[in-house]
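Attaching the record inline, Q. Sequence:
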Amino acid sequence: MLLVYSDGIIESLNQEGDEFGYARLREQLRLAQTQSADAILFSVLGAVQDFAGTRPLMDDMTLAVIRRTTANTPAVN
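Structure, as predicted:
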């Protein structure tokens, strides 16, 4: 899996002013690691939005997820 993201993902703030950060991103990826690329993308974006709550986004959020499957591993849709 390849994940490409902008700083708007990890620097999203919650109501207390805490950043989403690398640790939360890693945990979200760990939880979603067996899912399809689409599911991982929406899982991470959803986690960031849930974290931010009603606080407005201050930066752009760009996220791309690429998963490679082998001939022996069926693609997950």
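The chain has a mean pLDDT of 89. The chain is about 40% helix and 10% strand.

More tomorrow.
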